[in-house]
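Below is a filled-in request sheet from our internal design queue. Each sheet records the structural input a requester submitted and the sequence that came back. We keep these sheets so that new team members can see what a complete request looks like end to end.

REQUESTER: design group, bay 2
PRIORITY: normal
MODE: inverse folding
CHAIN LENGTH: 354
BACKBONE (tokenized):
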């Protein structure tokens, strides 16, 4: 497939099922292009390129995260969530965090082979591996690419613990692997931002609607998979009133645990989100942006450890208290027992002889 338009900064007011409304240049580009008012750009189509990789495990030292290593089978995400904090990573590729992020995708077809090699490396120490922390492993192109399934097969074969984060109901396809791994080795976090299907279609245009995600929680839980509902992001002034109802609906569907993160607007995400607000909910735009600033000391985003994942101030504290009270009332855990690492089997190792 080809990308039908490549003019940085142009506006796509009629881009069907896309989150971003523009394709502004990334922060590393020296030049920006202005759209020609007489030119009506064609709606962008999805392009997928392949990237051969030698290593697939990324590491981090963030005190805000409950893991220090992760895997991402794709770069970019066709789900098109306008608020996605991963959008700025596309600037590293010389692409726009706007429409490029959701239409110019990169697949890593040899990710499973790379993972197997890394697990078998001398001195490898098994720890929780997180998948879906940057872009969604169950975005639409996974249906044909099946890279995520290949990764799970490697992890299952070697009894390596994994935590999955997704909005995609395609995770149901892999219930067979997840149940084989069992609750000691695998769990799923499924994100629900709002219960309003209409609002979700605008915020997360190519994500299954919330009612469908709740059914996915139910099906996973019924199969014995441990599921956490992730009320993320909570958008102050737009979706924050739904926290308790989302938690209740997810508990009723079978979720055992819950987490919550307020809206984050790093780098290029802030102008993209503001553009979205003024187009789709203009009557609430000012309130939402002012409330976001209250969460971050007068700025649209504070990247400091600790504050970036919780926010600060009166409204942030109130939101956290509401979340904690609802979880306690509903019997939803905030923390789950650690997954096991002692079952790990090194790839290529010979079985002990007795």
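RETURNED SEQUENCE:
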């Amino acid at each position: 497939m080809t990308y039908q338009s490549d003019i940085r900064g142009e506006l796509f007011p009629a881009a069907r099922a896309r989150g971003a409304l523009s394709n502004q240049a990334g922060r590393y580009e020296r030049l920006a292009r202005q759209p020609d008012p007489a030119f009506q750009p064609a709606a962008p189509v999805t392009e997928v390129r392949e990237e051969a990789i030698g290593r697939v495990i990324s590491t981090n030292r963030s005190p805000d995260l409950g893991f220090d290593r992760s895997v991402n089978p794709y770069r970019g995400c066709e789900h098109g969530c306008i608020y996605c904090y991963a959008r700025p990573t596309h600037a590293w590729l010389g692409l726009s965090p706007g429409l490029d992020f959701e239409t110019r995708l990169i697949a890593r077809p040899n990710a499973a082979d790379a993972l197997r090699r890394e697990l078998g490396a001398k001195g490898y120490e098994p720890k929780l591996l997180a998948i879906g922390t940057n872009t969604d492993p169950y975005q639409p192109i996974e249906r044909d690419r099946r890279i995520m399934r290949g990764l799970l097969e490697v992890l299952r074969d070697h009894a390596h613990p994994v935590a999955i984060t997704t909005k995609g109901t395609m995770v149901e396809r892999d219930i067979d692997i997840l149940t084989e791994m069992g609750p000691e080795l695998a769990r799923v976090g499924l994100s629900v931002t709002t219960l309003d299907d209409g609002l979700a279609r605008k915020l997360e245009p190519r994500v299954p609607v919330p009612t469908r995600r709740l059914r996915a929680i139910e099906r996973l839980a019924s199969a014995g998979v441990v599921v956490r509902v992730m009320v993320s992001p909570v958008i102050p002034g737009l979706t924050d009133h739904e926290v308790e109802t989302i938690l209740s609906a997810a508990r009723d569907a079978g979720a055992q645990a819950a987490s919550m993160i307020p809206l984050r607007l790093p780098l290029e995400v802030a102008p993209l989100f503001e553009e979205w607000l003024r187009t789709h909910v203009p009557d609430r735009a000012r309130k939402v942006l002012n409330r976001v600033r209250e969460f971050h000391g007068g700025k649209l985003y504070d990247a400091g450890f600790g504050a970036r994942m919780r926010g600060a101030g009166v409204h942030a504290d109130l939101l956290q208290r509401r979340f904690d009270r609802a979880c306690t009332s509903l019997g939803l855990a905030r923390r789950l027992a650690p997954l096991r690492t002692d079952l790990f089997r090194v790839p290529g190792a010979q079985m002990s002889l007795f």
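SHEET NOTES:
- The chain has twelve helices and ten strands.
- Residues 55 and 114 are 6 Å apart (CA to CA).
FILED BY: M.R.
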